[in-house]
Amino acid sequence: MYITIIGWVWLGILVGVVAGFILCSLMNASKTGELESELVHQRFVRDSLKEEIFRLENQSKPKPRKRRNIRANKIKVGK
Fold it and tell me: pTM here?
């Protein structure tokens, strides 16, 4: 009689371990999917920001305007 009780206890332990392992695997699969999608998004943002930085750093400076040589003519007031 004690052997049957011990057998049922061991069977319960084995079934519980297998069920727990399957349940943990299913729970982690959804979390892993979310983390991978977040990682892909972060890489996209990083690459976009890198391109923006390189674009801003590599802009050529505007060419300076030539100095204008403007001379004011004599202005006569009245006659």
Answer: 0.48
